[in-house]
Amino acid sequence: MMIRVNPEVQKALDNNQPVVALESTIISHGMPYPQNVKTALEVEAIIREKGAVPATIGIIDGVGVVGMTPEEIEEFGKREGIIKVSRRDLPVIMSKKLWGATTVATTMIFAAKAGIEVFVTGGVGGVHRGAQETFDISADLQELAHTNVTVICAGAKAILDLPLTLEYLETFGVPVLGYKTKELAAFYTRTSGLMVDYEMDSEKEIAEAILAKREMGLDGGVLVTNPIPEEYAMNKDEMDVAINSAIKEMDAQGVHGKDSTPFLLAKIKELTGGKSLDSNIQLVFNNARVGTEIAKELCQLRG
Ligand code: PSU
Ligand code: MN
């Protein structure tokens, strides 16, 4: 058995009820314990309150679990040595029956296999700064190019090269939709100075675009970017300083590859005295609200 779908999730899917997928790398590698577990459970509560079934996805003993229990989420948050699993890691983690945290890429893979169309996260991976030399481009972008899941995020972090990330998504045919904004959100801040492809004024409009993509048989994801609420946004200048210094330290320590994103997140938290973590948590909550509405609209349109 490679994949186990929680019965409640399966029942909702069978009855055209809204389901929202959630990732687990944000739990094991994106936030410290215990805030990670608290946030993961609160996100699920928000999704339920708004009328959908949450499905937090992770790999337990080599099995892709779609809809972890609260106990499993707790274990994910605490356990040492959980491996960050992107597409290339998946075969070995499954064959060796290990525990693995799913990134945006692998969460999309399991969501698509289970038939879940909407996935809420914080930020997606992208083209890293200096990718011209390092070739460091997140596998999340290729997954968005091929796998039929809509990802709701707060844009991409300025630890990435945002203009190149947009170019890459354009090349691979991924629509980048701004929720009630023309500008690409930059995770901790609402603006980036870059434009999204289309501003969308409602969840219904977004659901209609997703459906049009499916009806045309255009494989691949849709990226919805939802800016962090103003009251939780970080100061852009403070953020720029923290990000630049985190990247410098990363290079000095020779951190690269899959360790890069977790290292930068932890460093930025340290440099902002924990404020970036508060922002990170709030933007995920905000994405959960919008994602749940999109999932509900999709069910209605499919009715
Ligand atoms: N961005 C965040 N928090 C995260 C991640 C991204 O703000 O936890 C995680 C996601 O799981 C994403 C992964 O899929 O980092 C990207 O890693 P990489 O750049 O190594 O592909
Ligand atoms: Mn990478």
Automatic annotation (TrEMBL):
Catalyzed reaction equations: D-ribose 5-phosphate + uracil = psi-UMP + H2O
Highest taxon in the source lineage: Bacteria
InterPro entries: Indigdn_synthA-like (IPR022830), PsuG (IPR007342)
Residues that, per the record, bind Mn(2+): 136
Family, per entry: Belongs to the pseudouridine-5'-phosphate glycosidase family.
Subunit text: Homotrimer.
PANTHER family linked: CARBOHYDRATE KINASE PFKB DOMAIN-CONTAINING PROTEIN, ZGC:136858
HAMAP family with a match to the protein in the record: PsiMP_glycosidase
Protein name per the record: Pseudouridine-5'-phosphate glycosidase
Gene it is expressed from: psuG
